[in-house]
Each structure stands twice: as C-alpha cells, then as structure tokens.
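ingest -> validate -> predict -> emit
validate: passed (alphabet ok, no gaps, 256 aa)
predict: started
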Amino acid sequence: MTRFQVLVADDEAPARAKVKRLLAEDVRFALAGEAADGTQTLSQVSALHPDLLVLDVQMPGLTGFEVLEALGPEHCPAVIFSTAYDAFALAAFEAQAVDYLLKPYDAERFGRALDKAHAVLRSGLPDTARLQSLLAELGRAPAGRPLERLVVKVGEAWVPLPLADVWRLSAEDKYVRLYTGQGEHLVRQTLRALEERLDPSRFVRVHRGDIVNLDAVARLEPWSHGDGILVLKDGSSVVLSRTWREAFLRTWGLEG
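emit:
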C-alpha cells in the first residue's frame, strides 16, 4: 500500500508534535518531514516533493499565504490549513482548500481533514484551479493592505525580499523581473496582477512593461513626443511613456 507523504509546517513545536502523532495513527499517510518557518517550508517542499502539506497560516519569516504564492499552483501539494483565523477567512478556506483545521482541534476533526485529503490525492486530478482561486482570495486579504515583500529563490534557498528594496519591476511574458541594488530576481507572476497589490503611493507604472519605485528615481529627463527618461539612483534608466506621464508626475509630486 502506497502511503501519501506529508510535510508538517508550523512554527510551534507542540503543534508539529500533535500533527505527527495523529499522522502516525493513519496508515494512509507517512511523515515526509517538518518545517518550523515559511522559508524552511519552501526548501522542504522543493527537496521532498510531499503529496500533502499541513500548513500553519501564521509563521515567522513567510506566512502560509506567501509560501503558497511562492510555490505556485503547478508545484504546490494538496494543502490542509492549520489556523486560528476567524470565520471570515475560514469561509474562503472552506470553499477553496482541501480542508482547514481551526486550532484547537481534536483527533476526530483531524481525521476528517485527512479523509478529504485522501480523496483528493486518490483522484489523481490536478488541483491547480482550486489553488489559483485560493491564491486570488488570499491576494485580496487583508483588504487595503499593500504587499510588503515577495519570495524569491537565491541558489537553492528561498528568501523574503522587501519591496522597499526593489527599484524597478519589468514584465517578461508571464514573469516579472525585479531589479534591486544587489541584483535581479525573476518571479512567476504577471506585472498587472502584481501591480494590483503594490502600494500606489510608492510604485507607479511608467511604461506598458515597467513599474518603478519612486524612492529609486534620481531625476526625470525630457526625451521626445511627450516621453521622458527616468534615471534611477543606480544609474540605470527607464522610459516614462506619455501614456503614464501625468499619473507619474502627480504621484511624484508634480503636475502636468
């Protein structure tokens, strides 16, 4: 009998111990590993390729939400959330995730969550549509709060990248290239989707394929036909299209 491999991710050791103990009582599943924070979770998923992830929402380093976003629908295992979130958030989880565990939970409730996960895993059907919908929900919560960081891969490690360190974002097909003072990173996300989550008082679109951090702009130079050239503090430059010129100047503190 093939046992589905499970990764347990929670920053609290007693919580991980509880999940491991309950898993040991179910012959359908086996423990693949455990992780104590979001960054470690990403590394473990990449290394172990588990079938199921029991994921705490609120972890240090990276939240459970950011872990899912970094993995993306194509590379994410089935997910059971373990969370202390309120009923509003749970409603979204219940509709989109395999299941959720509201702390504190008992063995019977955990067993029902495993039953759901087992049914999903036995079906063999990809669950990317469900996860994509879930990520869309998470991208809107909490409402009105702009994104503060992204998760990028550096070598074999996943690291959080504060958006304050990003000077420019450029579209590359279904990816976005992030330019920082220390180098470049590529994330699998469209520029339009990412723009919706950025702080509009700091990040402004200047061209069809470019967004800049206003804190990184050193000066604006005129060019031609209403376009301009933005020179960034690292000496690089990007075109300010006339299409976005007025909005940029207004946000930058100038008019017209």
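Helices lie at 13-24, 38-48, 64-71, 87-96, 107-123, 128-139, 191-195, 242-252.
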